[in-house]
Design a protein that fits this description.
The protein has 278 residues and is an alpha/beta fold. It has a single domain, classed as NAD(P)-binding Rossmann-like Domain (Rossmann fold), CATH 3.40.50. Helices cover 41% and strands 15% of the residues. The chain contains nine helices and twelve strands. Helix 3 links the parallel strand 3 and strand 4. Helix 3 packs parallel to helix 4. The radius of gyration is 19 Å and the shape is globular.
Length: 278
């Protein structure tokens, strides 16, 4: 295959996916959000796409801050850039695999409940109508998320708090999530690429089909916890997420249930800690 572009290649999922594809022999062109620094970013981005002329684009890059309230910033980074990339792929007959989000399901399972979710929802709709493939990731965790700050996975943040003797607080009411390991996210992208023609125009869940409690995650990680006040729960907070196997891509299945994923991730974190101390 000729080159493929991975946008957001310095971020958690983009960086992992780039490494994953490279190991499989794909030629990767990495593209990050530096083009937004230019007021004429649309022209800049189009010039990059035309110069590289990839066979496929994995559009991972986005504003992933679910608490962001700047509408222009969110819609420009998450919708307008996606629209431009989608139009380019559609016009050139190139494959587009878009990183969408379970935030599209919102609180009630129908529509998003915050600005981030809506930005991904409308972008996903545009991608699908343009013949691309959208992958709705659930709660992704795993190696490589060290620079995500407050947007890093719950397990990673709990691990950091635990290391410094902090108190890990959970929301009361037993919220649960479908926690999906980064390796399964990468394999889902490769599956979408290889089976693009039969998947084009659709969105697909990427998860484990198991909604597990935060308590279970911490118990698997041997981390103690207590509970925050109920008043600390944000408005619009999702108490339940779970992917639907009927919405998975045909022929794709996750390989990392929570127990296996947490065990592998903890070994990675331990190795990093030892390396830092050396």
């Amino acid at each position: 295959m000729s080159s493929v572009i991975v946008t957001g290649s310095s971020g958690f999922i983009g960086k992992y996916l780039s490494g994953y594809l490279t190991q499989l022999g794909y030629s990767i062109e990495r593209l990050d959000a530096e083009y937004f620094l230019d007021k004429e970013w649309r022209t800049t981005l189009l010039n990059v796409l035309n110069s590289i002329d990839p066979a496929a684009i994995f559009h991972v890059g986005a504003c992933s801050n679910t608490l962001e309230s700047n509408v222009q910033l969110m819609m420009e980074k998450n919708y307008e850039s996606t629209k431009l990339i989608s139009d380019w792929c559609n016009g050139k007959g190139r494959r587009l695999i878009y990183s969408s989000s379970a935030a599209n399901y919102g609180v009630e399972g129908d529509y998003p409940s915050n600005l981030y979710g809506w930005s991904k929802y409308v972008a996903e709709d545009y991608v699908c109508k343009s013949g691309g493939v959208a992958l709705r990731y659930f709660n992704v965790y795993g190696p490589g998320e060290e620079n995500k700050g407050k947007m890093a996975s719950f397990l990673y943040q709990a691990h950091l708090d635990h290391r410094v003797g902090g108190n890990v607080l959970l929301f009361p009411g037993s919220p649960t999530r479908d926690f999906v390991y980064i390796e399964d996210v990468a394999s889902a992208n490769l599956h979408a690429l290889k089976n693009f023609s039969e998947l084009a125009g659709g969105f697909y869940d990427v998860g484990t089909a198991e909604s597990r409690s935060f308590e279970e995650v911490l118990q698997l990680a041997f981390i103690n916890f207590s509970y925050a006040e109920e008043a600390k729960i944000p408005i619009g907070y999702q108490f339940y997420t779970c992917s639907n196997p009927e919405k998975w891509m045909r022929g794709w299945r996750p390989e990392y249930p929570l127990e296996r994923g947490v065990d592998r991730y903890l070994r990675y974190l331990k190795e990093r800690m030892v390396a830092e101390m050396a």
